[in-house]
Amino acid sequence: MRRLLGSLLGFVAVLLVVTSYFLYPPKREPLTFPEGKRFAFTIVDDTDVATLESVKPVYDFLHSSGLRTTKTVWVLPTNDADEWPNRGETLQDSAYREFILELRDRGFEIASHGARGGSSQRTEILSAMDAFKKTLGQYPRIHINHFENRDGVYFGKDKLTVAPYRWLYSVQPGAVSFEGHVETSEYFWGDFLQRHVTYVSNFSFDNIDLLDVNPGIPYHLPEKPYVRFWFHTSEGGVPERFNGLLSKENLDRLEERGGVCIVYTHLGSGFYRNGQLDPTFRRRISDLASRDGWFVTASEILDHLRAQPGHDVELTFREKLRIETIWLWEKLFLGRT
User: Fold this and answer.
1) Which domain holds residue 322?
2) Which member of 85, 92, 110, 131 lies 3.0 to 4.6 Å from 48 by CB, making a disulfide possible if both were Cys?
3) Cut 0.90: pTM above it
């Protein structure tokens, strides 16, 4: 019995050591930000269900608060309106298009959420990207995959690099196959993405400071060659999650640690309703804006991080395993993302 107990304790000890090695936070170097700012913050707004009525008041408030953020758009109307997340106005809607151009002129970044809400084949996607450039003057620097679009690039299980994790994700109910990076697929457009788009979002975490998760953002994955650089986001998809993320305690920690926060959210989904902004959202943004933060677009923050001395865009296996373990734990076992 003693021998069995000793063997069991030895196994547990080894397991703890291995777990500690792979999950122990990597060292983060001190960062400096332009104008001596103490931390960096921005929002990446997923355009799902967004309309002029639902998002213009939100962006007017962000602008008046001194924030410049990143907003994704669709070029084409949905081809699958039965799915609620596919609904929303696009660059085909004249008033909405003028609003997007106004945002651009105010210093906001306009990014891609794909051709439309709904899957699109290669010819449609390339045509939509050309229309994006014609309307906005350049191709998007950032792309965010959408929901169940089959043209998603390295999405679903293909977000993951660790083989057991890919399998675990693929057997979840409702798992979808994404083919934007599959050269033989009718949905392939990875070559365009590689040539024209700098950053693609990957995982979203329940942590306001992305440097806690991975101080190496943005990063490149050689096994996913159609994406030049990946970045993570902090999860704030709905008002309750967003407001919880921007609690006073979290903002204090972000400021004290000189951190970086890029919040992923849907500003068209409940942040403005019944003729007024969500009052907690208003308070959270006002608190944020009163602090000494660098409030610029996602691309500006990522460019700055990539330009830091000694920044290595290649992740080690340990770093990839740690990131994917945390994300899967939050998504599959805690149900947070």
Assistant:
1) 39-333
2) 85
3) yes
